[in-house]
Write a structure and sequence with these properties.
The complex is a heterodimer. By secondary structure, chain A is mainly α. Helices cover 69% and strands 3% of the residues of chain A. Chain A folds into two domains: 1-130 and 238-266, no CATH class; 133-235, no CATH class. Chain A is flat and about 65 Å long. In chain B, the strands form two sheets. A six-stranded mixed beta sheet of chain B has the order 6-7-8-3-9-10, sandwiched between helices. In chain B, a hairpin with a 5-residue loop joins strand 1 and strand 2. The longest helix of chain B has 17 residues, at 180-196. Chain B has a single domain (4-230), classed as P-loop containing nucleotide triphosphate hydrolases (Rossmann fold), CATH 3.40.50.300. Classes of the chains: A mainly alpha, B alpha/beta. The interface between A and B is medium-sized, with 29 and 37 residues.
């Protein structure tokens, strides 16, 4: 059941966007998120959507695949729209019992839905075109200045990449334990929420025990291979900017400038 | 001096009760002396709890002896400044293939050791490709380790150790979690490294069949070295091995029983091939 969530899972393809330096993509995504909240006119939203559309087209990720990834967040989206519509005071268009829909509410709901859709699609495009490993590498490099104020940047990045490596292994193990407990008569599916939560105990306890054992083994294996933190360590795949990355940076900053200009002058 | 030399190595596990008081001391390794020459293939046999894994961890400086000394390539392991040097020269392959692969791609895992050693990028790639090629895993370099078989995962682990250019590799029960096919893959890889690359191999196992090609075998029991010798010498003492709860290879067992029944078959038959030859002579 956990495996069905596909939002933002890496989609292997040869494209300009895939080949961009992960740092560019990370910065671009942040800029893009800011831009969504900078614009406030319809033309502005069209501009943002156009930018996103061009990026999606360049990435060669099928639109169908992206939309499929959006499905799990649809519910959150609907709830947001509903609340915005019902709870914004203003000129009332329609009334039913205690529910009233105002003109302003309708507008606020639509804007919020648009912003959220743009936000989620945009950020999932980053994870769709960047391997998790590249992403952690990029974070490590971008956050490196923080290590001067004693933030363990390398260690955090290493933890993230190890976590990513063990997710499928632990998922598989969960499956095995679940089946083993079901064979012994455990019932994970019936009863109310409290009963179901209680039923998870015999699943979580062995899972935790095994995770700690794995962590212990892994730490030993890493030490045996001379791991001693980030100092003096070289990189097998160092990140290096090439000309297309600089071009991408230029485009991204121009885009942000465009959004700000629209906000000010329109 | 040999590449690995232990001098009266003793390692104690301290058992504590619930309040943290010492309730007893177990000597997992008790005054063990071994001396391994460069290029040798050594096997250490023993049933569960005989102390063989604890001994292995001493060679890699993961554990340091409570008493006695361990030298790897002339370096004393208990001295802290030698730790990393020792670990680079004596690599270690562990039992569980999943719990020793760090990278998300095969090549990244193999590159992990050289990265830690601070090797320049282009040389890391050279080492990675060379190691993967030696272990026949070059075609899988861009694969996720999760999708490989157990034997393949262990070969990746071996490549990861090999990329650090060690002088000797310690295999700590590398086949315990594998199917027979995977076991053969790993043992074949270990033998190839010994034959072709002249890397000293220390194989720790409880499967007798895996040790028949080694130069020398040490049999451990209760922390002591109970037997020592060439495979032929060890396997001709079937009764003694069975006393130590170790099952001898099938061919050896059959030969031993036939000899007891009065047939003129020599001691120390190791493989089916040898048994077949001897039986032909009897006809």
């Amino acid at each position: 059941m956990v495996r069905e969530i596909t939002i933002g899972q890496y989609y292997d393809e040869e494209s300009v966007i895939h080949r961009l330096d992960p740092r560019v993509k990370l910065v671009a995504t942040l800029v893009y998120i800011i831009s969504i909240f900078v614009v406030n006119t319809y033309i502005g939203y069209i501009f943002v959507a156009l930018f996103l559309g061009v990026c999606v087209a360049l990435s060669k990720v099928p639109v169908k695949y992206i939309v499929k990834g959006l499905r799990p967040v649809m519910i959150i989206l609907l709830i947001t729209i509903l609340f915005n519509m019902l709870l914004t005071p203003g000129e009332i268009l329609w009334k039913f019992g205690i529910f009233r829909i105002s003109k302003e509410g309708l507008k606020a709901g639509a804007t919020m839905a648009l912003r959220l859709t743009l936000l989620i699609t945009g950020s999932s495009l980053m994870t769709l075109t960047t391997t998790p490993n590249n992403l952690t590498d990029a974070m490590e490099r971008l956050l490196r200045p923080l290590s001067k104020i004693k933030v363990p940047v390398h260690e955090i990045a290493m933890m993230m990449s190890i976590a990513l490596r063990f997710i499928p292994i632990l998922l598989e193990e969960t499956d095995i334990i679940m089946k083993a407990q079901m064979a012994r008569g455990a019932d994970f599916e019936s009863g109310n929420i409290i009963k179901r939560a209680k039923a998870l105990v015999p699943l979580l306890v062995p899972l935790f025990v095994s995770a700690f054992r794995r962590a212990n083994d892994l730490a030993m294996a890493m030490e045996a291979r001379c791991y001693r933190g980030g100092e003096g360590r070289t990189k097998m795949k160092p990140l290096k900017y090439v000309s297309r990355d600089y071009i991408a940076y230029a485009i991204v900053w121009l885009y942000l400038a465009g959004c700000i200009a629209m906000r000010i002058f329109m | 001096m040999g590449i690995i030399k232990t001098d009266k190595v003793t390692y104690e596990y301290i058992r504590r009760d619930d309040e943290g008081n010492v309730s007893g001391i177990t000597k997992a390794v008790d005054e063990v002396n071994i001396d391994v020459q460069p290029g040798e293939f050594i096997s250490i046999l023993g049933h569960n709890g005989s102390g063989k894994s604890t001994l292995a961890k001493q060679i890699n400086a993961i554990l340091t002896p409570s008493e006695g000394e361990v030298y790897v390539d002339g370096l004393l392991t208990s001295e802290e400044k030698n730790t990393w040097e020792v670990r680079q020269r004596a690599g270690m392959v562990f039992q569980n293939p999943d719990n020793q692969i760090i990278g998300q791609l095969v090549e990244e895992d193999v590159g992990f050791g050289p990265e830690n050693l601070g090797i320049p990028t282009d040389q890391i790639w050279e080492r990675v490709n060379e190691s993967l090629k030696l272990l026949g895993m070059l075609d899988y370099s861009k694969h996720s380790p999760n999708k490989l078989s157990g034997g393949q995962k262990q070969r990746v682990s071996i490549a990861g150790v090999l990329a650090m250019h060690p002088k000797c590799i310690i295999f700590d029960e590398p086949t315990a979690m594998l199917d027979p096919h995977g076991r053969r893959e790993v043992i074949r890889a270990a033998r190839a490294l010994n034959d072709v690359e002249k890397i000293t191999i220390v194989l720790i196992t409880h499967y007798m069949e895996e040790t028949i090609y080694s130069d020398r075998i040490f049999v451990m029991d209760k922390g002591h070295i109970a037997m020592e010798g060439t495979p032929k010498e060890i396997f001709s003492q079937v009764e003694k091995l069975e006393e130590l709860h170790l099952g001898v290879p099938q061919a050896t067992k059959v030969a031993h029983e036939l000899k007891k029944a009065g047939m003129p078959i020599p001691d120390g038959i190791l493989t089916r091939q040898e048994l077949r030859e001897e039986l032909k002579k009897c006809l």
